[in-house]
Each structure stands twice: as C-alpha cells, then as structure tokens.
Amino acid sequence: MDLLRPAEPREAAACTAISDGARLAAFIRYDWINQTRQNMVAATVLSTLALCGVVLLAGDALTPGAAALLIFIDPASVGLGFVGAAVFLERATGVLLALGATPARPALYVISKCAVFCAIGVGSGMIVAAVITDFWRDGPGGAAGPLPGAAAILFATLILANAAATLFGLGLACGAPSMNAFLLRSGLASIALAPPIVAQAALGPGALAHPLHWLFPSAPFAHLLAVGVGEPVSMATAAAGLGALFWTVLAAAFALHGVSAAFTGTAGAKGNRRG
Q1: Which residues of the chain have pLDDT under 70?
Q2: pLDDT at position 267, please?
Q3: What distances in angstroms separate CA 263 from CA 32, 104, 108, 163, 214, one per listed residue?
Q4: pLDDT given at position 17
C-alpha cells in the first residue's frame, strides 16, 4: 500500500533532483562527445600549443600584463567562437526545439555547456600559465614569481572568465537569427572587451588606474589574471573579484534567457521576420 501512497514533498523533490542530475550527466556526456567529434577539443589543443610557443619565444620580455592577455585569449575565443558554432549546429539539426518538448529545463542545458567549455578553457589556460610562471620559479620578465596563493587566484579567475565568456557567447548565439549575425555580434563584443586587457598588456597595470576601464567587463578579469602570474596584490584585487563574479552572474542570466527562448522556438524570430 505504501507504493500507492502519494509522495511527500521532500520525496518528490528528491526524485526531481535525481532526474535532473541524470539529465545533466547525459547533457555533459553528449556535449563532450560532440565537441570531440567536431574537432573543437583538437583546435583548443593547437591554440594552446601556439600560445605556449609565443610565451617561449617572448622569454623574459613577457610582462604580467602581456601574460594575462595570452591567458585570456583562449576563454574569449572558446566563448565567443566555439560555443556559437556548437549552438548553431544544434539549432540547424533541430536539437534545441526537440529539447524544448522534453521535461529538460533550460538551466540544465546552460550548465552542461558551461561545464564542458569551462573544462576545455580552464585546462588550456592553466597549461599556458604553467609555461609562463612555472609556479615554482621565476615569473614573467624574470620577476620573483607569483605570490603564495596566486595559483588559486589564477585558477578561480580562469573558471569565472571561461564561464562568463561561454555564457555570454551562448546567449549571443541563441539570440542571433543567423550565423552572420552571430559573427557580427561576437566581433563587436570582442572589440568591446579588448581595451582594458590590451592596455594592461601594452602599458602595465597602471593602465587600469583610469576609472573608465572598469566599465568594461574584461577589466576585473585582466587585473586578476595579472595577479595570478606575478603582479602584486592591491586594493583593487578584491573589487576585481567582485566585479568578475558580477559579470559572470549577469552572463548566466543572459544565457538562460536566450536558451529559454530557443527551447520555445522564439529565439531569433524578430530578426527572421525582418529578413
């Protein structure tokens, strides 16, 4: 008779959690296999090797600001490039609309994409950072090397940077009516992200002293990455951590909105009507 007894709210919640966990595991497995088959993992490996080559060629001429730029390239390219390709492939094959007809929640799709692309980007970034600093010997430009705890700052920043870039790219891709529209929007986004981190690479950490630079989403990540590879901690570091967290949460909301629209078939509809 207990089998016919209505489930208590706590039991129902547990069943839902197990169901969501199983779906999330399936999503992550699918995404990883798909990225491998589409050679996106291989492309990331090649780009990582290329960045390591640049580091080795630069030698002691590499500054912490330039090192932060090199580490930042992979999250930006993965988030604003590879994610878009993956989403448009799934839109073209009807995967997103099919998922919208299932009990799967858009949040699970977002978490899965974020987990897979973050794993790829963080792995790449840590390899480049290890070549830059060795974490145990000299830092960029022959400096004394990162401070104790810098590796943890770098690792946490890479997670946030990859998550923010992936989530933002996911939102852009779901909302764009065509691949050309996505490429245009991601290109404009790349230009908008560039000033703080390029200025830091060219002029040093003092470049971020101007308050206007902190209006750009990439500014807190630029500062934290530079700290992770040898730049001294300053009063701005805590503010940069909060800023990086803020932009990541904002990107998550943007991605969830775009994926929810894609699941219902309304993503890009406005642009398609204009076309």
Answers
A1: 1-18, 100-101, 134-148, 205, 265-275
A2: 56
A3: 21, 10, 12, 21, 35
A4: 47
Note the maximum CA span of the chain. 76
Q: Which residue has the tokens 């200025």?
A: 199
Count CA atoms closer than 13 A to 265's CA, side-chain side. Answer: 5
For residues 185 and 172, the answer to whether their CB atoms sit within 8 Å is yes
Which pairs from 184-192 meet CB under 8 Å and 24+ separation?
A: 186/80, 186/81, 186/84, 189/80, 190/76, 190/80, 192/216, 192/217
- In sequence order, which residues have a C-beta less than 8 Å from that of residue 245 and are 6 or more positions away? 160
pLDDT at 136: 38
- Alpha-carbon distance of 36 to 11, in angstroms, equals 38
Give the rounded percent of residues in the chain with a pLDDT score beyond 90.
13
Give me Rg for the CA atoms of the chain.
21
Query: Residue 7, class by beta-carbon neighbours within 10 Å (0-12 exposed, 13-18 middle, 19+ buried)?
Result: exposed
Average pLDDT of the chain is: 78
Interatomic CA distance for residues 112 and 13, integer angstroms = 21
